[in-house]
Design brief:
The strands form two sheets. A six-stranded parallel sheet has the order 5-4-1-6-7-8, sandwiched between helices. Strands 2-3 form a two-stranded antiparallel ribbon. Helices cover 45% and strands 16% of the residues. With 245 residues, the chain is an alpha/beta fold.
């Protein structure tokens, strides 16, 4: 039925937990920054980072270009460091964002059936795409670490595009860029209000991967398919691909 399988990343293919707002995290990050030659008292960095990030998001919302706009962490970091006199390049901003993510990371691992699902689709001749609400400076290193990059025919990250799920424009960008027929495409994700609602608004079928211990059936579901037990292998069986040997 489908030729194009569009995946969410975090919570769908990758199991991840981060800590980006605790006092302990900001203390660790400030210590790491000192080793890089940037001297920040952790409370000051926290205040600047949280307030400037909020300002960027509010500014993007006021611009009204997208229903759900996205910002770039690198832009936030340049302003944060500039606030106390550090002028940093684009490369430095990306590096400092990467460090921010690494230090905040508690764990990162692929779900056990991630590669089996993607390899099954590939063997069946399907096209595979990634549509992720994420920051490139955070996410690309994790895509490299997990070995996922070669699995995709196309990768879209929200910070690159200026919008994020559930904005239907994000889905439209993917379909226009790779010339995908929505009728032959399905979105696979673990978020009802993001992945599934966005796909429905964009006129695309959705496959909901339930990662919760209990499944609560929706009265008017935004998805066409569901894996109640959170199995990615059901993407193959339910959409008629079958398990490839």
């Amino acid at each position: 039925m489908y030729q194009n399988y569009i995946f969410d990343l975090y919570g769908t293919l990758i199991d991840i937990r981060t800590d980006e707002y605790s006092k302990n995290f900001f203390k660790k990050y400030a210590k790491w920054l000192r080793k890089q030659g940037f001297h920040f008292e952790w409370k000051l960095f926290y205040r600047l980072y949280t307030s400037i990030e909020r300002e960027h998001r509010e500014s993007a919302a006021r611009a009204g270009r997208y229903q759900k706009p996205e910002i770039r962490s690198e832009d936030v970091f340049r302003e944060v460091f500039g606030a106390i006199g550090y002028e940093i390049s684009d490369g430095q901003a990306a590096y400092l964002c990467e460090g921010f993510r690494r230090i905040s990371l508690i764990y990162l691992r692929l779900f056990p059936d991630t590669f089996a699902c993607l390899e099954g689709l590939r063997k069946a001749g399907k096209k595979i795409y990634l549509l992720s609400n994420a920051q490139r400076s955070f996410t690309w290193q994790e895509l490299e670490l997990t070995g996922l990059i070669p699995c995709f025919d196309g990768i879209l990250i929200s910070s690159d595009e200026g919008c994020m799920k559930p904005d239907p424009k994000f889905y439209d960008i993917c379909c226009e860029r790779y010339q995908l027929d929505k009728a032959q495409s399905v979105m696979i994700g673990n978020e009802l209000k993001s992945d599934m609602a966005g796909a429905k608004a964009a006129g695309m079928d959705g496959f909901y991967i339930n990662r919760y211990p209990v499944f609560h059936e929706e009265k008017d579901p935004a998805y066409r398919y569901v894996s109640v037990n959170g199995s990615l292998l059901e993407v193959l069986t339910q959409t008629g691909v079958g398990l490839q040997q």
